Amino acid sequence: MRRAILIKGSAVVLAIWPASTSMARDVRLSPDQVSQLEIKVEAVRPASFELVAILPATVVRPPNAHIVATAPYAGTVTQVLVLPGQQVSAGELIARVSSRDLLEAQSQLAQAQAELQNAQAIARRLRTLANKQLKSEFLADEAEAQVAKVQSVVDRHKMTLELNGIVAGEGGQYAIPAMQNGTVAQIDVMPGDKIESMAAVVSLDSNEDLWAEVQVPASVVAKIKPGDAVKLPDGDEGRVLSVGTVLDVKTRSAIMYVELPKAAPYLPGEMISLSLMRAVTAQGFSVPARAVARIDNQVMVFVRTENGFKAQPVDLLAKSQSFATISGNLPADAQVASSGIPQLEQLLAGN
User: How far apart are CA 283 and CA 330, in angstroms?
Assistant: First the structure.
């Protein structure tokens, strides 16, 4: 039976033909009525991917992009010369440290250099006398070997004073430079802090790339592989880089890393939700999630027709907060209602 329904104070007759729940049913609406009901439509797109799971993730920098500047000598931090988020260039000083250990190392170098000068003088004198056959060649060779030995000690002390490219000053003071261009991600010390040898001082990010670290349940691990697509909350798409094959004893999950798009609007440490996708094994369509309705225990979408909409039964393959993957008897150029679904459901029910 046809029913008359009042829309926004105007008497408008809407013809509804009920049908069995297994068949498409029509809701006749004129363009004006569609506009009054504020029903929007969106095109159906062939789906190349289907949803596997929606999982929480933590945004991180790639491990190879995170660089830590360390203090090669224990001491006390006297200055921190940078701020979080600051861009720094290779060689730019980022912190200063006062170190008794450095002072001792400088003293040891000075002592070794003095010993080297003395050994060189002795070796030259013995070589001269040996050439004049006033001393044995053996003594000259032994003196020159001693020079080489002391030289190696001097070289070793010099290398320790150049660890991490530090700029050593007088009185045990030294400055720590940035090893390469980057952005200050974290400052690990403050002026006045006492630090151990090789302690982290400042952390740098050498590029702006972002990854997501995901704990994947055991039931999902076998369903994904490197290269699979990942949908982000803003609609952009990422890519699975790796999936762990060993489960954590406590969480019973494997670690997966996802590469996020360039200039993704996230910050390291931010929590986001990722929709894990995989290639569909059957012909499917992608529609907005809000376009899918459940009527009489059957999944349906409202397909736009010349005379209004047709409630078309479909199979729901997967669904996330923003989109759904369906299969069914839909033309390739179909458009479905993406808003006003409650109104269409009421009209279909004849209320």
Answer: 11
Helix (H, G, I), strand (E, B) or coil at 132: coil
Alpha-carbon distances of 131 from 117, 122, 128, 144, rounded to whole Å: 21, 14, 5, 14
The 10 Å Cβ neighbour count of residue 257 is: 19
Nearest to 189 by CA among 198, 201, 197: 201
Place of tokens 């590469």: 259
In this structure, are 114 and 159 located in the same domain? yes
Report the CATH number that the domain containing residue 181 is assigned in CATH: 2.40.50.100
The C-alpha atoms of residue 138 and residue 301 are separated, in whole angstroms, by 100
Q: Are the C-beta atoms of 252 and 287 separated by less than 8 Å?
A: no
> Are residue 8 and residue 73 in the same domain, yes or no?
no
* Residue 30 belongs to domain spanning: 3-53+280-349
Q: Which tokens is 175 given?
A: 């400055």
How far is the C-alpha of 76 from the C-alpha of 97, rounded, in Å?
6
Burial class (CB in 10 A: 0-12, 13-18, 19+), 242: middle
For residue 27, list its beta bridge partners. Answer: 16, 309
Residues 41 and 135 in one domain: no
> Structurally, how many domains does the chain consist of?
3
Q: For the whole model, what pTM was predicted?
A: 0.60
- Say if residue 199 is in the same domain as residue 234: no
Q: Are residues 95 and 222 in the same domain?
A: no
Read off the pLDDT of residues 282-291 as tens digits, 9 standing for 90 and up: 678 889 999 9
Q: Return the SS3 of 270.
A: coil
pLDDT greater than 70 at residue 9: no
